[in-house]
Structures
1.
Amino acid sequence: MTSEIVKYVPFQSTVDPSFWMKLAEHKLNDLKLSEEPIEVYATYTIKSNIKLRAEDASSTTVTTSTAFTSGRMRLDQDSIVLPDASREHLDFPNNVIQTVGKVKILNTIESFKTIKKNDLLNECCLPSLLQACGIEDTNNDKENLDALTSFFCLCHLDLKTHKNVYWFAFPVLTPATGKSIRFDESIAKEEVMTSLKQSMSEDALTSLHKAVYMMRLQQWQEQQTTGHPPFWIIFTNDEGEYQCLTLSFANYDGLSEDEKKRCKFAFLDPTSTQNNDFAIMPIPVGWTLRNLIAYLVLKLGLADGIDIISFRPSVIRRIDDESTFTFDANTDDLSYLLKIQLPSKEDYQWNSPSGGTRYNTMGWELNARNKPGPRSVNLAPQLEPSHLAQQAS
Amino acid sequence: RAREWATPTLKDSAFLQRGVLTPEEFVKAGDELVYRCPTWTWESGDPKKAKKYLPKDKQFLVTRSVPCPTRVSTLENSVAVGEEDTAQIEDECGGDDWLISKVISPEEQERRMDKKIEEEFDILDEDGETLESDMKNLKIEKPENESVEVAEAEDDEYADMEEFEDEDVLEDEAVVAAPNAVSTNENIVKVRTYDLSITYDKYYQTPRVYILGYASSDSSQPLTGEEMFQDVMSDYANRTVTIDPHPHLRGQYASIHPCQHGAVMKTIVKNLTKAASDGDESKPPSVEMYLFIFLKFISSIIPTINYDFTMDVTASTQ
């Protein structure tokens, strides 16, 4: 009997109007007719577990009826760095994950319709993904894992009517059709996905959260990067305490053989849940796990069953000089432990129509009708002079 | 803007005397809000627009994607069937188990609304009269049922997009449909969401609220000014609430004008202090409490925007 396949909740794109306004200016002033993709930034994080105002409890049923909600990839005016601007102000708060992606602005709406979406995604996103996974020119000293949490946006900006058509993709390296990643079949079905509260003692859970906090604190103190790490390695030291290191080839390579055997991998899961008492397990998990698995298989060369933690703190606080570690094992953790059967390297090879094999990405966002298609946004209310004049009167 | 430039930065605390804040106190109160309600975060915004009297990374507070499930007009109409009314009607009709849909005049509706706000806050000035009396001169606007129109416009928008859909796009079995995507089922209600920010207004020396609405939680389509006014109590729409550019971000936001904020806050603070001296357990409010009280007051203006300020704030005393 084969085990269940792992299911994922895709990201949802969330674009602040300020992004479109700045992008339109950039298009007019700098990019002009160029359709070359430009680099932009975005952020995602967890949704704090909100307790809504009690008096409105009755009216919130609409929003809370779904058991979980997608992670949001968010873009705003800070996403675009204009050529003349210094990059120093790009310090994203360290309670969000910063991602780097590309925007391709098409000059005509017709080309938006006719452009081959699958090929476009492979062309624009596959090289950096393969590089991150060590398939192409591996340089371990300068490892860059940005591609594992990346995004792509194809758009057309109507600079006269301010109506923009756009389509986001969250590219993932996927195994070929029929080779979807499954839970570990050597584990009982009830145990392939368990809440950490269930599978760990309170002390161990506290120790784990403390280790994540220490990793973030150290990262903040060293100022190497900003933002919360999207992936990390969890292992136990000789005293049985948890320790965390951000995911990198060097950090994994530095572990002892024994540590490597017992280590777990974690990703910050932006999928939010109200609680974690689900009647039916396993439940779908965050999108970024897909590229994490590709990395573990292709770059680190791991195989067989592996422990992965879908890390879901109830809140991520910013780290600064005054921050201290606080944790309540009863309320502050909604994480899951996943027992996953890693695919083989060969599973990532797709049969190419022209013969031979190739790698493949997918991840175009579905539109509001749940169909593969773009979305549109009308910025006239934010920009139209007549409207503004009316509002000013 | 010139006025703001010309006003010296407030140096000494006048929280208890005038209901205003120094920039330092704003940061203190903001830190407390962020700590207790982590849905709120500090933002730095456009560095070119940064205010020197506030820390670079603590220019304003933000909470995003706040659900706003109903329009204010439904709330304003529902005043007519409040509990005491039902009881009253029942008495009048001999306790029969039926309800008369009582038609209430705009004046009556306004009176009840004022009363409701009064009860919520007991905003009293020195003479014991309600500050709301200013508001009585304002006409109540008939709530228009625009939601139908809006829904139609949105449907058109999706119809437009249909021709762009591309069935060749690779999909795989491991993906679950985004649970918050709007289903094609017509019955599913689109819940508007709002981004709220709180800035510090140097001229009025109080926090100031800017809001920007979106058509649904799944959409990045900003609402028009008129649509946002549907989520503001009609007493305030277009008067104390206006459409203005955000001081730190690009774009037009609905903003609650802060001219009365100091006076209202002073009154609430005074009543809270009085309660304390009357022997209640609670202490006079500290500066850290400011934004919790302030947000409760703001929620009387935008009651259907369901933002988070969960902390026990009892602002009603006689």
Note: The domain at 8-178+348-392 of chain A is CATH 3.40.140.70 (Cytidine Deaminase; domain 2).
2.
Amino acid sequence: MIITKKRDFQELLDNIRDYKSFFLIGCSECASLCGTGGENEVKELAEALRAEGKEVTGGIVAKTGCQVLGTKKELKAYKDAVNSAECILVMSCGAGTQSAVELFGDKPVYPTNDSLFLGNMTRFQVFDERCSMCGDCILDKTGGICPITTCPKGLLNGPCGGMKDGRCEVSPDIPCAWVRIYERMKKLDKLDELAESVIEVKDWSTAQSPRALSTREKKEK
Amino acid sequence: MSFREALESGRFVVTAEVGPPKGADVEEMVHHIELLKGKVDALNFTDNQSAVMRMNSLAGCAIAVQHGVEPILQMTCRDRNRIGLQSDLLGAHALGVKNVLCMTGDHVSAGDHKGAKPVYDVESVQLLGIVESLNNGRDMSGNELKGATDFFPGGVVTPEADPIEPQLMKFEKKIRAGARFFQTQAVYDIEKFKEFMKHARKFPVKVLAGLVVLKSAGMANFLNNFVPGIKVPQELIDELKAAGKGKGLDAGMSICARHIRQLKEEGICDGVHIMAIGMEDKVPEIMERAGL
């Protein structure tokens, strides 16, 4: 899921200082699990804004905020509340914020969260990053552990000289990705496979923003 | 005799390390180059070591060439993408630099520009492959070059990495990618180093043992606690302590000289790489004490 973190409230107030009335859009997917855009957070933000003398005309927890047409449909029921708000606040990720920008061409839209990374939830509201969405997966070669993401240097062929007792030079909190990969491949009896193949220089063009994908044309043909 | 010829001849070679200045003033670096001229087979120039921004390695190497000293260009993957690395390699070659040491590079978080975006577009094994490609007259994309390079490529290895197996796997990958010589992370336990060399001797590569000159017991403890892959045995720390106040460096130089002598006399490896880290002035005396 996309991991988000609430932005500083004072910074938000500074962003919206010129506006008086707001409509809030949360998201039931990632932002809800991150505690940044679910039912409770929408309610809390509405209260906090009112305490600052602002008007909140309404709010919604969109099912999937990054799904533009679906969100548009859901918002129809809130037409009056949306129309009477000067400004839209989006409590999801940057993708959700930009869905709203597309839907509200004539209204200012501000994010209440920072978008951090594609994360795994390991415990309730504890997240770590395991995939960078580079566009050309190498997990087939590395025992299912991504060194591009879990090694701070993104090394492809083994640990650097900074590994100490199986930990990373960047922080002892980070286990060395290549020690993990090595141990896993050893367990799977695939060390030969790991040792013999040099992973070639990566083609980063697959990670070049802005990326887009449509599988529609293929189907229509 | 060039560094490469010396290694290939089987002579015990000596290299040392010079860090380019943090600033535009090259006087001290030139002093160190002149001091070590004729004494060492080649001089390494570090590449923004510890991710601390300094003058680049290439300028240091070019100045060494001007002064008649053979340089080894240390090249990390931290600060340049594949275009920058290849371009700098071609430029280095044009300036008379023939030895290149391919390294990953310390992470920016270790240095003095912690907010920098680290590059690592390619890494050390792949960089060795790139050097091989340039030597064969093609860039890494396969485009033909107007003039091939003639680099002597090397890599680094940490004989005391813990765990050692993934490190040895990478060591072998570097050899397959084209590394012809290795300069190791600092070693202090010669018996343990012999174990590593037993493994390394299975491959057609030359190995120079890395030696960092100890200045005090405090420095030894610091290396043990904070520098990955360095293990100073307790008996050496005791030896430094026993030397007494103000005598640590002298004892450290003796330890270094003793290790050089042993490595050479027992034919354990092919040479030594002395990293004096700010004590470059002492390298000639260490070599003298080692009987070189």
Note: The CA atoms of residues 66 and 175 of chain A lie 33 Å apart.
